[in-house]
Specification:
Structural class: alpha/beta
Strand order of the largest sheet: 2-4-5
Mean pLDDT: 90
Low-confidence stretches: none
CATH architecture: 3-Layer(bba) Sandwich
CATH topology: Glucose Oxidase, domain 1
Largest sheet: 3 strands, parallel
Strand content: 15-25%
Number of domains: 1
Number of helices: 4
Number of strands: 7
């Protein structure tokens, strides 16, 4: 399935604030099982390029996804989504793990990247704080 701007508006429109972080997580255990068995990653949920526009227009500062979620259904859609976010300095974190252990929202997310001069991405240590 594709996460569109309409879906984002219906689910997050009243809750999102400028500077928030949005995490895309695949909670469909059957979908994940099927992807593991078949290797068909095109079955994974993904963002539409229009979702990138929605994130931009709502002032989202970072978008994170787990291993079982795509930035786009096709290479072209992934590239478009990525370019929309990068043009606005909206950070992306891919391959987040253990999201099932986050049981409350909102929560605080820290991401500690490994800085390397001359590249635009690197691995990071992401840490969620569930209580203040």
């Amino acid at each position: 399935d594709e996460v569109t701007n309409d879906l984002l508006e219906s689910q997050l429109g009243q809750r999102i604030e400028k500077g928030d972080i949005v995490i895309g997580r695949n909670c469909d255990k059957e979908n994940m099982k099927k992807v593991k068995q078949t290797g068909k990653r095109e079955l994974l949920p993904s963002f539409s390029p229009e979702a990138g526009v929605w994130f931009r227009d709502h002032g989202v500062k970072m978008v994170g996804i787990d291993t079982y979620f795509h930035l786009g259904k096709t290479v072209e859609k992934t590239r478009n989504f990525h370019q929309i976010l990068m043009a606005q300095d909206i950070l992306l974190i891919e391959g987040l793990d253990n999201l099932d252990q986050i049981t409350v929202t909102p929560f605080i997310l820290f991401a500690f990247p490994y800085r390397v001069e001359g590249i635009d991405s690197s691995f990071t240590r992401a840490v969620a704080i569930l209580e203040r």
